[in-house]
Amino acid sequence: MRRASTLAAASTCLSRAILASSEHHQYNSLFHAASSYANAGSSRRWFSTSIRSISSGGSPGAAKVLLSMSCLAASVAAGVSLLREKEAYAKEPVNRDLIPKEIVLYQYESCPFCNKVKAFLDYYDVPYKAVEVNPLSKKEIKWSDYKKVPILLVDGEQLQDSSAIIDQLRNKLSINKSNSLVDNDDEEKKWRQWVDDHLVHMLSPNIYRNTSEALESFDYITSNGNFSFTEKYTVKYGGAAAMYFVSKKLKKKYNITDERTALYEAAETWVDALDGREFLGGSKPNLADLAVFGVLRPIRYLSSGKDMVEHTRIDEWYTRMENAVGESSRIKA
What we know:
By secondary structure, this protein is mainly alpha-helical. The chain is built from 14 helices and four strands. The chain has a four-stranded mixed sheet with strand order 2-1-3-4, covered by helices on one side. Helix 2 crosses helix 4 (60-88), helix 5 (112-123) crosses helix 12 and helix 7 (185-197) runs parallel beside helix 12. The longest helix is centred in the first third of the chain and has 29 residues, at 60-88. The model is unreliable at 1-12, 20-51 and 178-182 (pLDDT under 50).
């Protein structure tokens, strides 16, 4: 009886929770070393001249050495090209004097709304601590009257609701509203709203569309969540079963006939909105880019996310966003 009660509580709480809700030094060293080759045209001409000379009567052993050196140089040059591409999509720095002394994010690791906030913090390289909330007891946020995640504490000030959190952080950090050469505030606002009103509702019907995908999703949730050993077992199987049935109701609520088709159409709609630009913000991501990326990040390597990348044109933009957002700025406990 106790186990059944726990299972029911897990299913109910998780349903609400989901619905409510340094390599850099090595790169620099390689870049500088490789640049010596990339910028030395005379050296490349020397390789070419030497090879032609040896091929017309020189030592075979010397030719092998020069060929090996040429291959090595070509590999290094390719590395330079890759590093330059990564550098082009580097994190966007902010004035360090404006960064709050302490930022604490109360979250569920797999929550799309929490991931929106994390995408913003990671991209602007703002250090933060993360507290994983147990969706059954929510003991980590008992101090708050607001019982949903994300909750962000900024030097003791409580912020809530992902879009509102991002707006307030942008103001605190004095981040320019537009990264492009033209004023696209209205466009940014429109697509941020689209994320909250449409895109996010495509997720649950897809990640819980059948029992195997529901179990795959809850395996990810329990592996990254704050659960005891017993809760992990209960939540994985009880939650997966509950959300499988909830996803069917969501399909009906949002008039979704085929889950995957709806997800693919949303991805294609976003790519069309880019209109050939690297990002909606132009040469750099804006808040709409970060919102779409944040919402999609939890599903990217689940079956639904892999299918989305394979069957739509979103992969190139998503890869650029991964490079731009870069490593997490989360402070490890």
